[in-house]
Task: inverse folding
């Protein structure tokens, strides 16, 4: 079974600074998909960014980018120019080719004004 | 476009009682998921539907949990009888197709407290 590990339960960052959230996963598959989801307090979970394992180029979405290291099975999220609205739980997720979905335990990010 | 709707938003029951949750996915979305999110943990997939058929229910405790998706649209998740450890937020999500790499759209969740 696949596992997703987020080793940072809580993190904080000053507004306008950059923060990196870590995620590692374990799989024996070669093709799979990785996601970062954001869950703001008392609000719905939304997709932040996604990466296909067969693509070497790291995905970027405005202020959000990933560092995908396939050999190391690492998928970190970098948030640049942090904003107060970035305060949320961030979940790393893995989907295999059988469409089975696994989430990590989450990192609680607080942006400090 | 309306999002994923779930009801009720909150439910408090005593152990051994029964409870049911309802989900209405985004119109036209073929795939529907039910997740259990225990406090402090990430969501755990309980069951996945493709239209009205079950694709994956390997993590569904079938002795007490059941789910159905009649006509491939709305879905209900039932717990009978509930245990204390069932206290969690139950999330419903939908996506347009069952293909990999599709974004899942989540509902607001139902927070269940079992006393």
Result:
């Amino acid at each position: 079974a696949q596992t997703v590990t987020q080793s940072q339960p809580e993190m904080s960052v000053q507004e306008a600074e950059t923060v990196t959230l870590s995620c590692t996963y374990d799989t024996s598959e070669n093709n799979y998909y990785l996601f970062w989801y954001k869950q703001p307090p008392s609000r719905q979970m939304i997709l932040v960014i996604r990466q296909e394992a067969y693509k070497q180029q790291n995905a970027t979405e405005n202020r959000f980018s990933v560092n995908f290291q396939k050999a190391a099975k690492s998928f970190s999220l970098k948030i640049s120019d942090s904003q107060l609205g970035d305060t949320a739980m961030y979940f790393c997720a893995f989907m295999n080719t059988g469409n089975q979905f696994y989430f990590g335990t989450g990192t609680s990010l607080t942006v400090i004004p | 476009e309306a999002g994923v709707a779930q009801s009720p938003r909150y439910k408090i029951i005593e152990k051994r009682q029964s409870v049911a949750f309802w989900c209405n996915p985004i119109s036209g979305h073929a795939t529907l998921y039910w997740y259990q999110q225990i406090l402090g943990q990430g969501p755990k997939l309980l069951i996945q539907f493709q239209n009205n058929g079950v694709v994956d229910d390997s993590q569904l405790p079938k002795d007490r949990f059941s789910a159905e998706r009649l006509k491939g649209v709305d879905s209900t998740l039932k717990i009978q009888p509930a245990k204390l450890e069932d206290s969690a937020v139950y999330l419903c999500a939908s996506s347009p197709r069952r293909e990999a790499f599709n974004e899942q759209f989540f509902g607001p969740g139902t927070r269940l407290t079992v006393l």
In short: Chain B touches chain A at residues 3, 33, 40-45, 48, 55-56, 91, 93, 98-101, 103-104, 106-109 (CB under 8 Å). The mean pLDDT of chain B is 92.
